[in-house]
């Protein structure tokens, strides 16, 4: 893949060996055009044109077709599907051909979708019900399916390493509600924790999602060609595909990959950015938005120049303490896989919990500055070679708490002193 960006960091072009997509934007960041060009068939070009209201960022038409909105600016009709919304601006019903209800949705007090009921087209008989289960941080743990008679039939359940989906368990249930069969598959994610591949226990590839940057293109559900589809509805972080709306449910809003926008305005107003309908500032390869509120900014690990401080400390110390400072420099630079991976999980957790809205680089820079300042203080008070492991742990806990990450994601609390990968020397053994 090849990518190009404009001066504002917006994705303007993506290219594979066979396809090129180019994006244009107006002054406020609304995408005005997407041009798709085949690199194998010279005359195959498709253009999507989008227009907006002159007094807002509301999308008014796609390729000349008007997109109606309600008084709050929520899109009420897309590609033959009509949407209605509740008093909180949550998508509550979807109709096909303007008259046939195909689904309705219920939400809890936290704004999480908890029930979907789908209906048979025409007869309006209940076709089935889906219930959703979340953990305390708001991550989706699973969805359970019931038929039109209320009989539990199957479910999909996910296993997570904080914000990274690791595996999916699909279970089928007997008429007694017991598990009659199950299948565990393993998820392989990209740099944003979006599932891209799925394999079984023998490492056979079952599922693949090679979408464009905005999530256009359906996944390949029978990669191994055995005639059995593998269904995974997870999409970008915080999103799950909904077949009835043909949108991705994104916690507080619903995302339309085709336009690269939300169909509702941001419920936190300008707190998530000046364009209240836009998705991650038109840079979906760098940012994600698991809550449907504001982008998570994975913008790198900041200024590592200050890490030279630890080179000085290596020269000033001896034994285990000197060895610690050698490792501390690598960690400071983001080059220690085990320790820095834990911090990456901690950053995502902090964004989920809302304990910081700083970007990745700002968090790293703040941690570096405070850790170095604290280390200077303790070495000044205790002597260059008098710093103990307990002192190091204490100021790390304070710093991680101060930046909003929390001591849980400081590696010194996960691994004992002096036990790899923890380089902090055991107190009394310096």
Structure, described:
This protein is an alpha+beta fold and 430 residues long. It has 2 domains: 54-268, Beta Barrel (Lipocalin), CATH 2.40.128; 305-413. Helices cover 18% and strands 33% of the residues. It has 5 helices and 25 strands. The protein has helices at 309-316, 319-333, 337-353, 360-382, 389-402; strands spanning 2-5, 11-15, 19-25, 31-38, 45-52, 59-62, 65-66, 77-78, 81-85, 91-96, 100-107, 113-119, 126-134, 140-147, 152-161, 164-173, 179-189, 195-199, 205-208, 240-242, 247-250, 253-256, 261-262, 287-288, 296-297. Strand 22 and strand 23 form a beta hairpin. It is globular. The mean pLDDT is 93. Keywords: Plasmid, Repeat. InterPro entries: Rhs_assc_core, T6SS_VgrG/RHS, TEN-like_YD-shell. This is Sugar-binding protein. It comes from Pseudomonas syringae. Residues 1-148 form the Teneurin-like YD-shell domain.
What would the average pLDDT be, to the nearest integer?
93
- Quick one: biggest sheet? 12 strands, antiparallel
Query: Any idea what the shape is?
Result: globular
How many domains, as an integer?
2
Radius of gyration: 25 Å
> Helix tally?
5
Share of residues in strands: 25-35%
> Structural class, from secondary structure content?
alpha+beta
The stretches of 5 or more residues where confidence is low (pLDDT under 50) are none
The span between the termini is 49 Å
Quickly give the CATH architecture of the largest domain: Beta Barrel
What's the multimeric state?
single chain
Could you spell the SSE succession in H and E letters?
A: EEEEEEEEEEEEEEEEEEEEEEEEEHHHHH
- Helical percentage: 10-25%
Q: Supply the CATH class of the largest domain.
A: Mainly Beta
- The CATH topology annotation of the largest domain reads as Lipocalin
Question: Care to count the β-strands?
Answer: 25
Strand order of the largest sheet: 8-9-10-11-12-13-14-15-16-17-18-19
């Amino acid at each position: 893949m090849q990518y190009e960006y404009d001066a504002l960091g917006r994705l303007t072009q993506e290219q594979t060996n066979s396809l090129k997509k180019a994006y244009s934007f107006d002054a406020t960041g609304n995408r005005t055009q997407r041009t798709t060009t085949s690199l194998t068939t010279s005359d195959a070009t498709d253009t999507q044109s989008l227009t907006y209201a002159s007094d807002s960022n509301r999308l008014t038409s796609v390729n000349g077709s008007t997109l109606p909105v309600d008084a709050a600016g929520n899109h009420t009709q897309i590609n033959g599907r009509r949407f209605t919304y509740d008093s909180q601006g949550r998508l509550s019903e979807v109709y096909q051909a303007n008259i046939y209800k195909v689904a309705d949705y219920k939400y809890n007090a936290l704004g999480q979708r908890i029930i979907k009921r789908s209906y048979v087209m025409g007869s309006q008989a209940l076709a089935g019900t889906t219930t959703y289960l979340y953990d305390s941080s708001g991550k989706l743990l699973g969805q359970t399916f019931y038929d039109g008679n209320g009989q539990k039939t199957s479910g999909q359940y996910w296993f997570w390493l904080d914000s990274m989906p690791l595996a999916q368990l699909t279970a089928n249930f007997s008429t007694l509600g017991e598990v009659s069969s199950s299948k565990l598959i393993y998820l392989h994610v990209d740099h944003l924790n979006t599932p891209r591949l799925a394999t079984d226990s023998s490492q056979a590839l079952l599922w693949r999602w090679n979408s464009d940057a905005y999530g256009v293109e359906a996944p390949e559900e029978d990669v191994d060609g055995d005639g059995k589809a593998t269904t995974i509805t997870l999409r970008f972080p915080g999103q799950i595909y909904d077949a009835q709306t043909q949108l991705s449910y994104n916690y507080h809003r619903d995302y339309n990959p085709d336009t690269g926008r939300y169909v509702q305005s941001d419920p936190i107003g300008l707190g998530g950015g000046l364009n209240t309908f836009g998705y991650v500032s038109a840079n979906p390869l760098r940012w994600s938005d698991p809550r449907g509120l504001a982008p998570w900014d994975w913008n790198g690990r900041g200024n590592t120049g200050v890490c030279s401080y630890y080179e000085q400390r290596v020269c000033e110390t001896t034994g285990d303490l000197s060895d610690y400072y050698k490792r501390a420099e690598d960690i400071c630079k983001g080059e220690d896989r085990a320790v820095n991976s834990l911090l990456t999980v901690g950053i995502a957790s902090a964004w989920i919990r809302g304990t910081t809205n700083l970007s990745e680089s700002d968090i790293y820079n703040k941690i570096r500055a405070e850790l170095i300042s604290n280390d200077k203080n303790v070495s000044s008070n205790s002597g260059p070679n008098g710093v103990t492991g307990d002192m190091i742990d204490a100021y790390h806990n304070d710093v991680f708490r101060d930046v909003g990450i929390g001591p849980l994601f400081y590696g010194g609390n996960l691994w004992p002193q002096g036990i790899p990968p923890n380089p902090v020397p055991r107190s009394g053994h310096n």
